[in-house]
Amino acid sequence: MTEAAGHTPHHHEGAPAEDTGERTPQDYETRVSPFVEQFAADLTEAGMQRMAARVFACLLASDDGALTSAELSERLRASPAAVSGAVRYLAQVNLISRRRDPGSRRERYLLHQEVWFTAVAGRDNVLGRLRNTMHTGLGELGPDTPAGQRLGEAVEFFEFLQRELDQVLVRWRAHRSGRSR
Amino acid sequence: MTEAAGHTPHHHEGAPAEDTGERTPQDYETRVSPFVEQFAADLTEAGMQRMAARVFACLLASDDGALTSAELSERLRASPAAVSGAVRYLAQVNLISRRRDPGSRRERYLLHQEVWFTAVAGRDNVLGRLRNTMHTGLGELGPDTPAGQRLGEAVEFFEFLQRELDQVLVRWRAHRSGRSR
DNA sequence: CGCTGGTTTCACAAATTTATGAAGTTAAGG
DNA sequence: CCTTAACTTCATAAATTTGTGAAACCAGCG
């Protein structure tokens, strides 16, 4: 059956602002789902495939950052096939990993540790590709042409950016572990 | 975000080939165009609309970073309509500006100063949007829930990233002017 | 072995995105 | 004013991307 295992609503009073307290199962529909969809939309806008974005967002909003195919399928009202495809992509780009719960034939898809970290590293890759293409183009155009100048500067910028980005990530690690972990 | 993670060493591949000197008109076809298309493909892969990417790449590879609609249309073998749309988009996101040469009815589209700078700032915008959506979601989910925890951390990461990114850009400015300008 | 729950693959339908020709605008130049 | 070069808008055709149902797979379990 499809009863959402592991999604026991946690009750929390004393919540911030105007949270009256109770968390009902309907909360998913009224509160979580809108967020998931909005976030997915943002990601899509930013270039990620739609379904992958939805799955990713859904995991992000789930209690323990992990859901089974069936759960995703239900929450997103999407076919298992669609989930399968999205999940394959996300695993490919290292945003999630798939885990086989021993004793059960269902699989759990869970957010990679430090997802955002990974995501930024990924961005780093596309920067690298752009940089390489420009570097090659520089060879074709000749570094002495006006266009070549511009390209050269761009290449420099990208290299600079990549170095800096790496350091930013290092700094984040420091920042992070410095406060609670 | 779209591509995978992992840390590809930022290797500079093959040095630019020998530049024999002459530049013929056919050079555009044989040398420039392939670069333009490849670069556009990279940008498309990274999420930019195809035609916009082509126009942008074309401008980047042009001698003075500026071309008329007709020139773009010819070099890209695309209809004026397509160019028009692409150009509108690029202006929208502040990557190019349009200039009306007084006395001529044609318009010139030129790369914005410090394009890459702008581009990164733009990326910053999408980061901001994601951050905001997450922040809102945090309100809905409650910061005391497991998902809320995760979200909160993500928001922090994004804020950190944005601050750092700003500084990186400042540093680039310094770096840049420190060497020649 | 042979089911059976669970996931993946495949062919195809639906939705979206792109690009185009043609008609519509706008303003320079007579 | 009227012409006309140049850009834009619009409806539509073409290409791509998405998502789905149904069939194929693949272990575990009895």
TrEMBL record, chains A, B:
<dbReference type="InterPro" id="IPR052362">
    <property type="entry name" value="HTH-GbsR_regulator"/>
</dbReference>
<protein>
    <submittedName>
        <fullName>MarR family transcriptional regulator</fullName>
    </submittedName>
</protein>
<feature type="domain" description="HTH marR-type">
    <location>
        <begin position="47"/>
        <end position="107"/>
    </location>
</feature>
<feature type="region of interest" description="Disordered">
    <location>
        <begin position="1"/>
        <end position="28"/>
    </location>
</feature>
<dbReference type="InterPro" id="IPR036390">
    <property type="entry name" value="WH_DNA-bd_sf"/>
</dbReference>
<keyword id="KW-0805">Transcription regulation</keyword>
<dbReference type="InterPro" id="IPR000835">
    <property type="entry name" value="HTH_MarR-typ"/>
</dbReference>
<dbReference type="InterPro" id="IPR036388">
    <property type="entry name" value="WH-like_DNA-bd_sf"/>
</dbReference>
<keyword id="KW-0804">Transcription</keyword>
<dbReference type="Pfam" id="PF12802">
    <property type="entry name" value="MarR_2"/>
</dbReference>
<dbReference type="GO" id="GO:0003700">
    <property type="term" value="F:DNA-binding transcription factor activity"/>
</dbReference>
<keyword id="KW-0238">DNA-binding</keyword>
<feature type="compositionally biased region" description="Basic and acidic residues">
    <location>
        <begin position="11"/>
        <end position="28"/>
    </location>
</feature>
<dbReference type="GO" id="GO:0003677">
    <property type="term" value="F:DNA binding"/>
</dbReference>
